[in-house]
Amino acid sequence: MKVPQKAPDMWAVIEKYPDVYSLFVDPGIQELVTKYNRDYLHWEELRRRKLPVEAEKLWAVIKSSRVMQARHIEFGEWDFQYVQSNETLRRLHLLDTRGAGNLEGRPGGVSAADRRRYIVNSLMEEAIASSQLEGAATTREAAKQMLRQKRRPRDYSEKMIVNGYRTIRRIADMKSRTIDVDTLLEIHREITRDTMENPVDEGKFRDNNDIVVADPQDGSKIYHTPPDYRKIPALMQEFCEFASSDEDEFIHPLIKGIMLHFLIGYIHPFIDGNGRFARSVFYWYMLSRGYWLFEYMPISRILLHSKTKYARAYLYTETDDNDLTYFINYNLSAIEKALEDLEEYIVRKKEEQAAAMQLIESAENLNLRQADILKTLLGESDRLFSIAEIMGKYNVAYDTARRDMQYLSELGYIEQIKVRNKLMYRYSGVAG
């Protein structure tokens, strides 16, 4: 990916072109400014457009309007700013009303068993996609099978995914915990276990400057040079205070969570694992602020499908005076898409479940017990069942339970999975 051209300095442009002041009252120019601010174009995009005036002049007018609306965040030695457009406010309202709600309010309602299944599916998807963003080389289907079977990881990529899954499950259980430096190091240690070149670097801030964010295909193309490692302890302490504080000037929790995500990428406090760590911290922060539905939304899957835009959002911010609006807007759009995907997933799964239940009830090749076994497996299709469980639930002998499961497997209703040399079973429609 090409590094975007750094945006011109507004005051330097005004000094260079004194006639630019006339554009501030030109109705046609103001209409363009409104349009390009709505889309929040970066200089890299603006300069390639066919424009009625020099691109630099129009940029100065656009930038001036943004400066007047901007809210500022002082962090470390930097001044970050962001603009809340009408589109930003629309997305915040949408995610406030739907992202902090619960699944019972969804069409048709969602049972406790369904909620468990959706959470497990989402956490798997999040761990897999977040690891794939950092280079994990495995398919989604193979990774989910490994996690479902609780198989030991065989290589670096699988270790990344297992670590991510364990970490994100743990974070979901610690949402009421106040973030501090020790907790951050603990999260990093979990997410990088047995995957660092030097195990000493697990759960430890970097102690050198031998790190840059570069193009993975062309290491000479530098995207970002993180701050000096000696500043990291103080910056991360400030990070914890910022995450835990309630500012005099209110920052919407979604925007603040996205800022925390950005700051980890900007500071790059660790030798490796910064991306997975940043997304985990964002996930923790949103759950800690009452956005429970985020437990069901694998946002990293959206980022993975648009990872060029994800990377560009970082670069646009850094090449335009640390204007976080680019990164905020991109992430809000990704979150909105994740919410839409979740709602579509729930509707689709409930329709599939209803159709399957109807098929089971009308099947002439099943006796009543076998039909009921299928309903049980369908109702908890996120987990594996043993023959012993079927024996206990239906009060039948081992041979009867085994024959039932074998018969249902032959008919294609369920699948057999060997876990540590033991046969387990699940409804075959479980794959998401």
UniProtKB/TrEMBL annotation:
<keyword id="KW-0805">Transcription regulation</keyword>
<keyword id="KW-0804">Transcription</keyword>
<feature type="domain" description="Fido">
    <location>
        <begin position="179"/>
        <end position="333"/>
    </location>
</feature>
<dbReference type="Pfam" id="PF02661">
    <property type="entry name" value="Fic"/>
</dbReference>
<dbReference type="GO" id="GO:0003700">
    <property type="term" value="F:DNA-binding transcription factor activity"/>
</dbReference>
<feature type="coiled-coil region">
    <location>
        <begin position="332"/>
        <end position="369"/>
    </location>
</feature>
<dbReference type="InterPro" id="IPR040198">
    <property type="entry name" value="Fido_containing"/>
</dbReference>
<protein>
    <submittedName>
        <fullName>Fic family protein</fullName>
    </submittedName>
</protein>
<dbReference type="InterPro" id="IPR036390">
    <property type="entry name" value="WH_DNA-bd_sf"/>
</dbReference>
<dbReference type="InterPro" id="IPR003812">
    <property type="entry name" value="Fido"/>
</dbReference>
<dbReference type="Pfam" id="PF08220">
    <property type="entry name" value="HTH_DeoR"/>
</dbReference>
<dbReference type="InterPro" id="IPR036597">
    <property type="entry name" value="Fido-like_dom_sf"/>
</dbReference>
<dbReference type="InterPro" id="IPR001034">
    <property type="entry name" value="DeoR_HTH"/>
</dbReference>
<keyword id="KW-0175">Coiled coil</keyword>
